[in-house]
Amino acid sequence: MKSSEELMSKLQPVLGLFLLVVFWELAFEMRLVDPVLLPSPAQSFQAFWHGLEEGSLWADLRRTVARTGISFAIALVIAVPLGILLGSSDKVYRALEFPIDFFRSTPASAMFPLFLILFGSGESTKIAVAAFGAALAILFATAYGVMNARKQRQLAARVMGASRLQVLSDVTIWESLPQTFVGMRSGVSLALVIVIVAEMFIGSTDGLGQRILKSQMVFDMPDMYASIFAAGALGYLFNLLFIVAERRFVHWGGK
Predict the structure, then answer these.
(1) Are 227 and 63 in contact (CB under 8 A)?
(2) Which one-letter DSSP state was computed for residue 2?
(3) The pTM is what?
């Protein structure tokens, strides 16, 4: 009984994928959508495998991963220190509250024209706009994590003679790490989304976004769905990596 429950628990993550494929196959067989626009799962998987075998999908996948990784790294280096500064000082937060809320409410895709003016239509624009979107997510999560750090531990550190800087570095920052990791997970997902959109519309010749757009333009629907699947699988993998890292490095969160 226990072994069957463990087996079911392990199979649960793939249940959603199985149901999606079943629904997709039924929609194809029942012709709910024109087969030209919605190929079968088998055709799409064949296109996915062919793209991997002949190398073009791997090349586009690597370019998207590289752009996302660089964007996320830039966002992380900028946003975490700023988030700690904002969260640890009410005066600084209040002084910057309007521009912070303004940019938080502005979709990153709406900033494409501004970044095109500033950086041109090259590689730097895609990375900069993705870093901008990811940095906002990380910044707010870090700031809120610092602001919501448990006061009892901070007070205990002060009673034991710790300076303000020591309380910040030895207590507050560690207390904020679980929330910071949440922001990092959101940030890397957002960076991936923006990179793919930027690859579609900002002068790209490679990347998953450009591959999806090219496939759609020539009505190569199996390859389009294969590329969409690759993008979704990449996002899922990023999210999974951060969940594992979070459990490894902040396993004490909430305790």
Answers:
(1) no
(2) H
(3) 0.85
